Amino acid sequence: MADVNRGNRPLSPHLTIYRPQLTSMTSILTRITGNALLVTTFLITWWFIAAATSPEAFATADGFLTSWFGDLVMTLSLWGLWYHTLAGVRHLIWDNGIGLEIHTAEKLGWAVIGGSVVLTILTIIII
Amino acid sequence: MRYLTDRKRATGMGSAKSGTAHFWAMKVSAFALLILIPLFVFTFGPMLGKPHAEVLEYFSHPFPAIVAALTFAVTMKHFKDGVQVLIEDYVHGVAEKISIVVMICVCYAIAATGLFAIARIAL
Hints:
By secondary structure, chain A is mainly α.
């Protein structure tokens, strides 16, 4: 009795059978942006330690970060940062049991997507 | 084969009871970052691409230096807790434990490097 059917139980339906939805996509994107920001952190740490080391080291790090490729990475990072920030706000709201109805959650999802793009453009203009 | 009842096999294998503390830690660091991230973006951002001397001068002021230091410390705390959940979801067994330990070490290393650099610039 104790060892009947171990490890061979039916699994609940997984990601593959679901139609992509705004709520699931914005959720996975939160995880992707959050973890991808490690790359940004590496680059910014390199920039700071280079600035603390010598003018030559700083020129290399700063040159990379302001090259076309560096600009691309930093712009994507900026969007990822704002996206993750707004998605985090959404979670802080949800944690209070507010805004969990599907239509509200989807509105918040669009607000996160739109808001992150607007904030990214605004930041680039200001900086 | 060992003769164990279902109950006996399950005892002690449940939750570690640390989930609430982890959830709360994420909330606290998230709230702190909500304040820190805009401050960091608008202090670090304008310095990107500036001459070396100007960067050193700017980050020797208390406000930008403290914002940068706090951002390093709190982001890495938040990342350490967040990446742990990511690993727990997709990696299992020994690889899971090794990945979590490695990522925690990476986070502490980044935080230490960033704090050292800012201290050296600011002091």
